[in-house]
Structure formats: C-alpha cells, structure tokens
Design goal:
Blueprint: E1 2-5, H1 11-22, H2 28-36, E2 40-46, E3 50-59, E4 62-70, H3 79-93, E5 98-103, H4 108-116, E6 120-125, E7 135-141
Parallel strand pairs: 4-5
Antiparallel strand pairs: 1-2, 2-3, 3-4, 5-7, 6-7
Helix pairs in contact: 1-2
C-alpha cells in the first residue's frame, strides 16, 4: 500500500468515487480544473487499484482537505487512519502547519477518525450541506497533539 500523487488518468476513478460517495458532488471538468490548479493536490491510496483519494487545497502553510474517500469495503480497517496520518506527514514536509476540513456530524466514523488523528472541532457551519445538515469545522496544527 502506498500514497502517490494523482496522474491525469486517475481522474475518471476519482469522479466515479465522488459520484458514489458524494452523490454527484463534482464533474470531470471540475476535476480537470483541480488537477491543473497549482494550489490543489490530489493524493491516492493505492495497492493494485485505487483504494481512496484525498483532494487538498494548500496555500502557503495552510491546507484544507476538500474530499477524503476510502472505498467502503476497506473502512474501519485502518486504511483511512494510515492514509490520513501519512498524508498529514507529507503536508508537513511541504511546510503546512495548519489543516482544516468540514465533516458531517452524522458521519460518526469520519469524526472519530479525525479526532483520533488529532483534529479538534472548532466550530459548526450551520446548514452547510445541500440537504441542510450542519458541518463540523475541524482543525489540526501539525506537529502538535
């Protein structure tokens, strides 16, 4: 299992996962824009195939995790923790010191994973998602617990 940066040919599988797990949250055109945006970094968790991906916006020493997916069959088996913790190490090597993300409060497994990896809930974004659900804004300072 390894983490690598996405290549152009990976965008189709990312789109498939976006549609499966986020219900048509994005388009292939948007993924192409992200791929060529120097502030966006797309990482994949791979073995023989793509097991998950993370889309991260990096601006100087701050990062925002925009999408984080591990395929459903591998959830709660340590893959997400491995992927998140190792990607945070990569971000730290880029000079990132602060990372934020939004997560649905109803996504208890994801919230638990983020807390386990050192994220703290810092606020609630009311009616953040299309269905009106709030989002927890979570924050982690790299190099600290």
């Amino acid at each position: 299992m390894k983490i690598r940066k996405a290549i152009l040919e990976d965008l189709e599988i990312i789109l498939e996962y976006e549609n499966k797990y986020f219900h048509n949250f994005t388009t292939l055109e948007k993924l192409y824009e992200d791929f060529y945006n120097p502030l966006i970094h797309i990482y994949l968790l791979v073995e023989e195939e793509v097991l998950g991906y993370m889309i991260i916006w990096i601006d100087e020493d701050k990062a925002q995790i925009n999408s984080f997916v591990v395929i459903e069959e591998l959830r709660r088996k340590g893959y997400g923790e491995y992927f998140l913790d190792n990607t945070l190490e990569i971000l730290s090597e880029y000079g990132v010191v602060e990372v934020t993300l939004e997560v649905r409060p109803s996504n208890i497994a994801a919230v638990s994973l983020y807390v386990k990896s050192g994220f703290k809930q810092v606020s609630v974004r009311k009616a953040y998602y299309n269905n009106g659900e709030d989002a927890y804004l979570m924050y982690k300072r790299l190099g600290s617990e």
